[in-house]
Hints:
10% strand; 12 helices; 3 domains; elongated; alpha/beta
Amino acid sequence: xxxxxLTKDKQVLKLLLNPLGWFIFIMVGFSWYGYGYLAFGKExxxxxxxxxxxxxxxxxxxxxxxxxxxHLFLNFWFCFLILFYLFWKEKxxxxxxxxxxxxxxxxxxxxxxxxTISLAPIVLLSFTGKKYDKYLLWIYPFWSLxxxxxxxxxxxxxxxxxxxxxxxxxxxLTVLGVITYKTSTTFSDKLQDIxxxxxxxxxxxxxxxxxxxxxxxxxxxxxxxxxEELLVFLNQGYEVISKERLTQGRLKKSFLDPYKKVVxxxxxxx
Length: 270
């Protein structure tokens, strides 16, 4: 839509208003969410609306607006260095050349489309409260195409810059690969500790379930909502996993959910 308004291309705007396209979109979406409602119930949608939508958009614990840009620069730092070099070399910082840059950009519709689809989502997501880098994963391929087009267009005849770009790319890939490996190893160790110390055949949840525990448990785990039930299961030797501290039972241990960074408590019979 933004691309259509920038280029004033009537075909793009007509495509957005195509009834058949909207019909297919609605049918696919309705089928997906309809199946989810029938299979899992309305609770799944309530959690989706409360956590993924409400908490992310209007959370009191807001992240700074530049968080997504920071992730973007970190992953494509070498490309931004080359872009800055081009910007400085062609003196695009001058007022006349700066506006001339925009006019050239509008002429290259392929480049403008890639820039729009790469930049617009990040700008819009920057207005949200809580920010998660996973929402950027689908945008990265478009940024890769955008930088590739610029670099090929400007440096297609320079062997030195081609080799420099390859070295920077491999260095970036190596550094990020090492960081990812170390992070995943640490994360895996935390999961194994939880699986070893928490998972048993006599577990129940209080008020709210923990998806991580459900995933590793070999049997379904009941969710308790009444204090009478809580006392009964504690007396039967069950361990109660709760997101909040309880007055009944004895606090046996606590653990940090490595996904959501929230502390959970495990209570047993006194």
